[in-house]
Amino acid sequence: MPLRPVYSPLLVKLLKGAVYSESLADWNGILAHESPIRDYFHLIGLQLVVHEQEGIALLRREVDEGDVDTLAEGNDAPLVVEVPLESLVQRRPLSYPLTLLLVLLRERLAKIDSGELDHSGARRLVMSSDEIQAMLQGFLQENFSGTANLRNLNTNVRQATDLGFLKALRGSEEGRFEVMRLLKIYLRPEVLESILQKLRDHADQLES
Description:
Blueprint: H1 8-16, E1 19-20, H2 24-32, H3 34-42, E2 46-51, E3 56-61, E4 70-72, E5 80-84, E6 91-92, H4 96-114, E7 125-128, H5 129-137, H6 147-162, E8 166-168, E9 176-179, H7 182-186, H8 189-207
Antiparallel strand pairs: 1-3, 2-3, 4-5, 5-6, 7-9, 8-9
């Protein structure tokens, strides 16, 4: 029986989701065995993507450029964004409020990186539910503070967490969420601008 390669545990972790540089042993292992790991996943139609600057390694389906991050009108929702799940098994249509939430969070990350948003010199973006609500309030209906809308907000935050874009914190930061830099990978600047334009078009339709 052939021996399992030393990087086998890393294959499993990558299939479960993104690996961050904070997990130092896993991160160094991926960098050390990047070539064979890449070859292994290529055989099953997956692409290893390593962003050293952001400190993220993840898998994506091998598709044509421009086929991954798309936004289109849907039948059951006012807006649909197809974002590959971290498992890369399927793509999930997102509602307009959830799409808006992800876009606004992505913009916050960009402002931190550019220094436009003062966040105590840290690259981490951590927000409370109240801060997320205040961020969204100006873009959604005026009675956004109503019970139903707050329930929808919690649903959208939970969905963003399930997708790996938010991380619920524990301990002294209970009730707060870290915006994961994985969001920068899926919403690249050119994709972000395209989605923003579609969001503006959708908002114009609601007002007309």
